[in-house]
Design a protein that fits this description.
The complex is a heterodimer of chains A (680) and B (577). Chain A is an alpha/beta fold and 680 residues long. Chain A contains 21 helices and 24 strands. In chain A, the strands form seven sheets. A five-stranded mixed sheet of chain A has the order 2-1-5-3-4, sandwiched between helices. A five-stranded mixed sheet of chain A has the order 20-22-21-23-24, covered by helices on one side. In chain A, β3 and β4 form a beta hairpin. The radius of gyration of chain A is 28 Å and the shape is globular. By secondary structure, chain B is α/β, with parallel strands linked by helices. Chain B contains 21 helices and 15 strands. In chain B, the strands form five sheets. Chain B has a five-stranded antiparallel sheet. Chain B has a four-stranded parallel sheet with strand order 6-5-7-8, with helices on both faces. In chain B, strands 1-4 form a two-stranded antiparallel ribbon. In chain B, β13 and β14 form a beta hairpin. In chain B, α15 packs across α16. Classes of the chains: A alpha/beta (680), B alpha/beta (577). Chains A and B meet through α7 and α16 of A and α6 of B.
Chain lengths: 680, 577
């Protein structure tokens, strides 16, 4: 017989029913213990000390990291604990830049809320005097170190959930702080901009980089026409800012609000998603037929794309070459709408409303510009749009639903489900199944995921497809490592950086529980059900554009992109020695961990000796670089721009000699080229 | 009901298309009055629809102030259909745009998909085909209509006009067939519209293959509310519509069919007309065959067309509804395919024998009814219409046929009621007198005349002229509501019971002659108490008198005199006992 386990919490007896820790048991007993660092989906850390309770016989312990034990007698509100909690908050506030009224987190800040809840009415400690500069280096995320309460939530979500780990604690004691490696900016390190840290940050230390003012400027500029696209996941979450239940579809009201705010053309990203389905579906069918570059990875998620560029450069050819729906939309809109309105491209401003911080980074990528003009000029997160609507004084819940403009406002259900994990696969499969033979809307519904990896074999006609759906980059890494090791084979892999997909994006309202995210996803599938068409190829406006406006090369130019190996950390190489003589030779040795272990220091010392011996000292510059992203082929040496992998001193000498031989010829060519240009 | 329905249609419960909820029926005859074919019978004050006579126009549903008339409820049947695993398509009547206007038109298809329907289409597709087909068959008749109530009316009541009907079925039926052909035989089709008659039309044997169930917009709205589906938070989406439907979406308006068929009709044409409303339709069909010169006529039974159908209760002004229909029809539609024109559209119109209902009734039976209701004299036949019938004679015919009751005649019933109360007063052995606010006599009964030896000539005199007015004065002063006493006058001992009619500002007195009745001890007690009361009043009066000044003297003296006199009278009574 199972023994019933009980604990006494503040004089109430509570049954222990598998709670993971004392904190959960206390919350079950209807006591809301404040915490900064406790999140059920990431590891227990015990950093903030807000959840301290007194356990009889054991003294004061943090509830989050104490297991609930039968017979425990717990007090959560003794004088000592109350004073302690207040003191902690006071200390936090003393270290905190208290410019609350102008903080982007104001109103939703947990420190603000807890200080108010605990009745902290004064801070007895001197305010930290010097403010550290804000980190504005990232396109997506602003880091304000003066707001950090060092709960470590961002550190753990980035490491544990996303397996990226760009943030960590540095220094000790009073000097401890949370920073990216080498205290570089977030934009200079391997941050993929997914924004999950922004979502868990209880204060204003990590916030989306706002573009609200730029968008207002564009709206107010009489010479500019402003078109806006709304991503699928926004429509089922934005309502949460205006008192709607999570998952309520408020697409129509959003359209009306945007029109009231002065946007000229209001379109739907789902329309572009329909294009993505067709392009990605065709790409997949063709690759599958030729059995090449499989598995095909989806490429809609910009955080995943950057992740792949950084960590899996060898698999970049497996990524679909399709742009994401946001960028397809931008390219199509700037091309077609500008022509239709007969305005220069520069006067058409494309704004997108996204559940995502990484989309801000994506819009800034060099690949997505024409003569320097971006395809998507500004990206607003759901959060920013809510702020703009509130700023405009619009009573959102009273609005009559409006209609999208055509043609870019017409979509099929396949375009809508992109916002949920599994949605892209389902949409592509609907198209592929239909193109290859048979299929219907519900056939692939078992691919709908709320965050777990789904591995399935799907039968279409007589073809069997093996596919994987994964969300959360940590899980993606595990899966890809298996693929690399040859343990798994897939034909199609969908990766979304955020657990559950875009509905749980870093720019969305903070979801209190997993259920909120699930409700949003369910709502997207309901939206799909409500729509007239469920297969992207049935979109009549899309057919029309393919037939009338897009030739095959043009479609490829507008709708596809390429990826490149990306250094995980930016910055100049270190110049080790440079003499004043005329430089003929630049030798750059990679000193990254892998190359270092594979013999880079030895190579360097042999090289310096060789240079000295050959009398090239005056003409040689030595540099040390960090990673060349060729770790398995280390040590890596660069002779001028020539890369030599698995370099030995013999290989290096051979390379240097070749370089020196080529040099006079190069110099002569350069000289003649210079002459010609002066003539001209 | 038609034979074979029961077996063929398992999804519609076999009740009448329109029926009365007897609990709510309050015997006002409004339904009888508005029913264009007088298909409503009244038994024991309860109205009920005679299904055989009923043309399902739904006028009574719209009119009944108690909402006691209802169109057959089909929601359960439709839900069952959806649960049965069959794929269900829905055909939405074009009048929907009058009820779901503006932004709602692009949310309704989404809401329907939420309810579980898998294909949402516009009946206007069928309307387009019907209009074309009607034009092709113009030589076969001159009456074209999508209105099943008009068809019912002609088949039941104007059988000689059946031949003039162009034998083309309705848009609903054509569209049902079109959808089943397009989607496959296994699909079911549910029609949603504003109409009651469509529920019955779908059940006609020749239409069994077209539509599986019919809902009204009222039912749809109820269903959406039950499911918590709000249009404002539904996705924007469209119908799965084929063909250019712009004009066909005007079908629910008067003249919509002609317009779709591009037949010019601006109201000045000699041989082409469109009309709507029961009165106009009936008047049109009053035209004798010989004078019927029309080449094409489009009648609709509801005034203004289907946008005024009984399938939804709506406060919206009918002209605004019309505007919304036109606005919706002007919306461009993105359609790649055209409608399939190969579905059968032939109609099976035939005169329907509704038995003895139209038979003549013997004159003597009519007269008997009129006589029984006191209307044998034509002067007394008011033809007021309160019973719901046009004339007293029509009502009498209905009574003979068992459709009506003599009690439906209001003037007759009033007369009867009045006579009955009058009789009671007239024959009462007790005297009754009614006084006005100034205590002047308005009315008396014979018993009162006898008791107080007077006649009607004293009407208008004050009551004090006849009897002691003390009690009435107290009533008039408002100090009491009723008063009871035993008094004697002119050698007559009587029991007086008086009360006030406050609303009418009248006073009623009831007098019982007690001269010959022996008092029991209780009565003696009453009298003694009265004596003591009077004595006290005298005493009070004396005290007041002594305190007040001389100018009250005259009045006071008179009052004391009166009181003393009353005392004396009382002692007289004692002597009598």
């Amino acid at each position: 017989m199972l023994k019933v386990q009980r604990a006494t919490i503040d004089n109430n007896e509570v049954l222990i029913e598998g709670e993971r820790n004392l904190l959960e048991l206390i919350r079950k007993a209807n006591i809301d213990l404040p915490t900064f660092c406790y999140h059920s989906e990431i590891s227990v850390y015990g950093a903030c000390r807000m959840c301290m309770v007194e356990v009889e016989g054991r003294g004061i312990v943090p509830a989050c990291s104490t297991p609930a034990v039968n017979g425990m007698v717990v007090h959560t509100n003794t004088r000592q604990i109350r004073n302690m909690r207040k003191l902690i908050v006071e200390l936090m506030l003393a270290n905190h830049d208290q410019n609350c009224t102008t903080c982007p987190k104001s109103g939703e800040c947990r420190l603000q809320k807890i200080a108010c809840q605990l009745g902290v009415d004064k801070v007895r400690f001197k305010q930290a005097e010097k403010l550290a500069p804000k980190d504005l280096s990232s396109d997506a995320i602003v880091r304000d170190p003066n707001k950090c309460v060092q709960c470590g939530d961002c550190v753990r979500v980035c490491q544990e959930i996303q397996s990226v780990g760009v943030l960590d604690f540095a220094h000790r004691g009073a000097h401890a702080k949370v920073i990216p490696s080498f205290d570089k900016g977030l934009g200079e390190v391997e941050c993929v901009n997914c924004g999950q840290c922004v979502k868990v940050c209880p204060v204003g230390a990590l916030t989306p980089k706002h573009q609200i003012n730029e968008v207002w400027e564009a709206i107010h500029d009489k010479n500019k026409v402003v078109a806006v696209q709304i991503a699928p996941a926004v429509r089922v979450a934005l309502g949460e800012y205006f008192g709607y239940k999570s998952g309520t579809t408020i697409t129509g009201q959003t359209v009306t609000a945007l029109r009231m705010m002065g946007f000229n053309h209001i379109y739907d990203t789902c329309f572009a998603a329909d294009f993505t389905v067709i392009e990605e579906g065709n790409e997949f069918l063709s690759r599958f037929e030729k059995n090449e570059r499989l598995p095909q990875f989806t490429s809609c998620c910009p955080a995943w794309v950057k992740f792949a560029e950084q960590y899996y450069p060898d698999m970049l050819t497996n990524l679909s070459s399709c742009k994401s729906p946001q960028q397809m939309f931008g390219a199509l809109c700037k091309d077609m709408l500008a022509k239709e309105l007969r305005i220069p491209r520069e006067n058409l401003v494309v704004v997108s409303i996204m559940p995502c911080t990484a989309k801000k980074f994506e819009a800034n990528r060099e690949e997505f510009r024409v003569n320097g003009n971006k395809d998507v000029d500004y990206v607003l997160t759901s959060q920013e749009l809510a702020l703009m609507i509130k700023e405009s004084g619009i009573k959102f819940d009273r609005l009559e639903p409006g209609s999208f403009d055509l043609p870019f406002g017409f979509k099929t259900g396949a375009g809508v489900i992109f916002g949920s994990s599994g949605g892209v696969s389902e949409a592509v499969l609907r198209y592929a199944a239909d193109t290859a033979g048979k299929g219907s809307i519900t056939e692939f519904s078992h691919l709908r995921s709320d965050g777990d990896i789904i591995i399935e074999t799907v039968t279409i006609g007589d073809i069997k497809l093996r596919l994987a759906i994964v969300s959360g980059l940590g899980k993606a890494r595990q899966l890809i490592d298996k693929i690399r090791r040859g343990e798994e084979h897939f034909d199609l892999v969908e990766v979304m950086a955020c657990s559950g997909g875009c509905v749980n994006g870093g720019g969305q309202p903070v979801a209190e529980s997993k259920t909120t995210v699930q409700t949003r996803a369910k709502s997207l599938y309901d939206n799909d059900k409500m729509l007239q068409f469920h297969n992207s190829k049935d979109n009549p406006y899309l057919q029309k554009i393919y037939n009338e406006d897009l030739s095959r090369p043009k479609a490829h130019q507008l709708l596809h992109t390429h990826y490149s190996n990306r250094k995980r950390i930016s910055g100049e190489d270190f110049i080790l020695s440079s003499k004043s003589g005329q430089k003929k030779l630049t030798l750059t040795v990679c000193f990254g961990t892998s190359c270092f272990l594979r013999g880079a220091p030895e190579l360097y010392s042999q090289l310096t000796e060789y240079v000295k011996r050959s009398g090239l000292e005056e003409e040689t510059e030595f540099k040390v670089s960090f990673c060349r992203e060729k770790c398995e082929k280390g040590p890596v040496l660069l002779i001028n721009d020539e890369v030599i992998e698995r370099c030995t001193i013999d290989k290096a000498i051979k390379g240097i000699e070749e370089a020196l031989q080529n040099m006079p010829r190069q110099a002569a060519e350069e000289a003649s080229a210079a002459k010609e240009s002066t003539k001209a | 009901m038609r034979a074979g329905e029961q077996e063929q249609n398992s999804f519609e419960k076999q009740t009448s298309t329109i029926y009365t909820i007897s609990a709510s029926c309050q015997d006002c005859y409004r339904c009888v009055r508005v029913c264009p074919v007088k298909a409503i019978s009244v038994k024991n004050g309860q109205a009920s629809i005679e299904d055989e006579r009923c043309i399902k126009c739904g006028t009574c549903v719209r009119t009944c102030p108690q909402h006691a008339k209802t169109i057959r409820f089909s929601l359960d049947a439709v839900k069952e259909l959806l649960h049965s695993g069959r794929k269900v398509a829905v055909s939405v009547a074009p009048s929907f745009a009058a009820f779901f206007h503006g932004w709602q038109t692009t949310r309704l298809p989404s809401a329907l998909r939420c309810l579980g329907f898998q294909y949402i289409s516009e009946t206007a597709e069928g309307a387009k085909l019907i209009a074309e087909e009607t034009l092709k068959q113009r030589d076969k008749g001159s009456i074209c209509t999508a209105c099943p109530a008009v068809i019912n009316y002609i088949e039941k009541y104007r059988p000689d006009y059946v031949d003039l009907l162009i034998p083309v079925t309705s848009p609903m039926v054509a569209h049902g067939r079109m959808l089943k052909k397009r989607l496959g035989k296994t699909w079911a089709v549910v029609f949603i519209g504003p109409c009651a008659a469509k529920k019955q039309e779908a059940l006609r044997p020749e239409n069994q293959d077209a539509v599986d169930a019919v809902l009204t917009f009222a039912e749809l709205i109820q269903w959406l509310e039950e499911e918590g589906i709000e249009l404002s938070t539904c996705s924007e989406s469209g119908f799965e519509s084929y063909g250019e439907l712009d004009k066909a979406r005007l079908f629910p308006l008067q003249g919509g069919l002609l317009k779709t068929g591009s037949i010019d009709c601006d109201g000045t044409n000699i041989d082409v007309i469109h009309l709507s409303g029961s009165e106009e339709v009936m008047r049109l069909l009053d035209i004798p065959h010989g004078k019927w010169k029309f080449s094409i006529v489009e009648p609709l039974f509801c005034a203004g067309g289907c946008i005024n159908g009984p399938g939804i209760a709506l406060d919206k002004n009918i002209f605004l509804r019309k505007q919304d229909i036109v606005a919706y029809a002007e919306k461009p539609a993105m359609t790649a395919q055209d409608i399939d024109r190969s579905v059968p559209c032939a109609a099976g119109f035939a005169p329907e024998d509704i038995g003895s209902i139209n038979e003549e009734v013997e004159e003597s039976l009519i007269n008997q009814v009129l006589e029984a209701t006191g209307k044998s004299n034509p002067v007394l036949q008011l033809n007021c219409g309160a019973c719901g019938y046009e004339s007293c004679r029509d009502n009498a015919i209905a009574v003979v046929k068992g459709m009506a009751e003599p009690e439906m005649c209001m003037p007759h019933m009033r007369r009867m009621a009045q006579q009955r109360t009058d009789r009671i007063i007239e024959t009462s052995p007790n005297g009754v007198v009614i006084l006005d606010s100034e205590l002047k006599i308005i009315n008396m009964n014979p018993a009162f005349h006898k008791m107080f030896m007077c006649n009607n000539s004293i009407i208008g005199r004050r009551i004090s002229y006849l009897v002691d007015a003390d009690g009435y004065e107290k009533l008039a002063a408002g100090t009491m509501e009723a008063f009871e006493s035993i008094k004697s006058k002119y050698g007559t001992k009587y029991h007086e019971q008086i009360y006030a009619l406050r609303d009418e500002k009248q006073y009623v007195g009831m007098y019982t002659d007690m001269t010959k009745i022996k008092f029991d001890p209780k009565h003696i007690g009453l009298i003694k108490n009265q004596t003591i009361e009077h004595a006290r009043e005298l005493l009070d009066h004396q005290i007041r008198f002594s305190q007040e000044m001389a100018h009250y003297l005259g009045r006071s003296t008179a009052q004391s005199e009166e009181l003393v006199k009353r005392l004396i009278d009382l002692y007289e009574e004692q002597d009598l006992i």
